[in-house]
Amino acid sequence: MKNFLFALAVCLLPLQLLAQFNLSGRVTDVATGNALPGASVVLENTSTGTTTGPDGAFTFNNLPAGNYSLKVTFLGFDQKKATINLQQNEFVTLAMQVKSFQAGEVIVQATRADEKTGTTYTNVSREAIEERNFGQDMPYLLEQTPAVVVNSDAGAGVGYTGIRIRGSDITRINVTVNGIPINDSESHGTFFVNMPDFASSVEDIQVQRGVGTSTNGAGAFGASINIQTQQTQPEPYAETSHSYGSFDTWKNNLRFGTGLINGKFAFDGRLSRIKSDGYIDRAFSDLKSFYFSGGYYGDKSMLKFVTFSGKEKTYQAWDGVPEDKLETDRTYNGIGRYTDENGNERFYENETDNYQQDHYQLHFAQDLMPQLTLSGALHLTRGLGYYEQYKENRKLANYNLSPVTIGDETITRTDLIQQKWLDNYFYGATYALNYSTEDSKLNATLGGAWNKYDGDHYGEVIWARYASNSEIRHRYYFNNAIKTDFNMFAKVTYQLTEKLGLFGDLQSRTINYKIDGVDDDNRNVTQQADFNFLNPKAGVTYAITDNQSVYASYAVGNREPARTDFTDTPINPLADIAGPAHETLYNLEAGYKLRGNTAGLFGSDDANYSFEASYYYMDYDNQLVPTGQLNDVGSPLRTNIKDSYRTGVELAGVLNLNAIVEVSSTLALSQNKIRNFKEYLYTFDPDYNVEAITVIDHKSTDIAFSPAIVSAHKLEVQPVKGFKAALLYKTVGKQYLDNTSSDDRKLDAYQVTDLRLRYTIKPGFMKELEFALLVNNLLNKKYEANGYTWTELYTGDQNRYDYNYYYPQATRNFLFSVGMKF
Predict the structure, then answer these.
(1) Where in the sequence is the domain holding 37, given as residue range(s)?
(2) Which residues does the UniProt record annotate as the domain TonB-dependent receptor-like beta-barrel (predicted)?
(3) Nearest to 161 by CA among 181, 147, 143, 134
(4) Same structural domain for residues 190 and 246?
(5) Which of 79, 254, 332, 760 could form a disulfide with 770 if both were Cys (CB 3.0 to 4.6 A apart)?
(6) Contact, 169 vs 735, CB < 8 A?
(7) This prediction's pTM
């Protein structure tokens, strides 16, 4: 029997040695449990290595049985090693400890959510950003995240672009870069056109939906977008990428970095240029930008300087296309139109927007003791620019000019060219004191910011057919705005048991806003407003198993009106609220998360998967909603609605099979309603004066620009090493242009398919060479992603006149890129 067993073992041993298995796992932060994408995972004493994906996962396929030593490294974390005796398919979780010296995570730690905060969020990794980054604006790189709808004035994603999350536009989405507010203090908007190719210098992005956790800047009423700039790489590098595509679109950039010098210093930089003619007539963009950072990384301290700048020149396209031209001339752009002396239609060639925005940030962090860290930042944003317009037959009096007398004729109107200027400074300081117990059961942050905005608004006449008594660059209006914003917040997470965690967050915010001067229509807009807000939040998390968890949170948010709510919206004597009031949001979030790795799933040797489901209820008091009309620069006019709500379900799932096939989907189903909405219609006399106001009561209507269904799907395959092909499918349900739920004023539902191809090789003379192709709107669909409307009645006319304008998006178009890494 002994001889038989020995002979059997000898026979089976070669089979065991020939057997091949998969070694996979996930790398996380031991303190937060969050995934660490981009970590380096190496099998020591071999030439085999990889990096973790967006969910922190990694895989080594077809390894012979035996003992292996895994080494994991990630900037800012202590090196992690593990020994694995591989006799079957194995999955390991490797939790890494933050190093004592300060890494980039410290910069955004105070304003980000994690798995212990009980709120709804999505992390977008650097890898996911790079896959989509062909030169289109930042909103287009976030299009696959749940409940996101994007649009472009020029139609192709370059120039002025917009984003809505859960139906809320950018003025209701808090945006920060390294914890510094980016939203304009007055308009609350974020103009990504002023940050061209900024995505090439981004490490990762967190999108929190709903109120989210406390942050700096205007309150989040739809979502917050928390951006972290690139982390220092340990080794020197140089990269360049170049894209070309439809509408003569170009993107060129150069990125470089020194790596860590003597383990203490590092410098990184980028230069970029993007230009495009746009899909819409004359809607060109000429964009330039740079990024630079330099830092000192000590054992217990960090000092890092970050600066980035964007300069844009775009031909205005914010008027959209009239409804009656959609079928005959979808690319029509009426801005800059005038009639020459022979009666011919002309377009002014310099009807452009010109603006430069420079950002300066100085970040510091210090370990005060092993569990206590102090971090903060000083910042300055400088903005200067104008938009230029040709105006026909304008009253001289509106420009503070006297009538012109020529012979017996008195001239009171003239053609002219005007420039409207913004000249502003935004500066301040942020701070955060973070405490964490050694076992990470308790994490507490005391943080906040003091910020000040000082901005001039003025207009100049640079040319007039009849100049009257004007001087060179005649200034016809001027007003100044000063806004101070101070907030403090305290956040605490406490792990009550191994499975149950609690979260609390309380923010106090004080705003003082002053406007002094005259607006462009000669109205005195001098006014002052003060606001004091208290924003509490609380949440709970529960780990059902190692790979399943549930959460719930309740938050209250308050936010002040934007500048146009004060200056552009006429006070309606019949409205329930006189003038703009601040808004309050009561937000309930609840969700379920599942993630793991299962060998044999769907016949695969190795499958990584994740699934998330969330429910939300957002109850608004005095929500400011768009009326459907725009002001003279294309910003929506809004009005307070006493009682409204948004509620819905969001689903998101990812399945990765052997890193060969990846399927991901998001689906957002929602109701967005106004209770007891009153519609106001204005009747005009022959001189266009308001003669009467008609009030129409609606029991319940849909909030404008809030589709009930939004989904995004991706199927990506990697048939051979280095080549990936992805099919992207986006659906957006019907949207209304105003708050009346009328099909006469709506955006039709649309579905868009994109194709993305990437092929990467590693030739001997460089680290990496990549060729990529993005085909947008592969099936050549005609659709509109944004629009606006207004309605008028006229004395003696019983008809209602609706004026609908739309922003058509480009039909089939492409972008091809070449990337090189050295």
Answers:
(1) 18-96
(2) 307-778
(3) 143
(4) no
(5) 760
(6) no
(7) 0.87
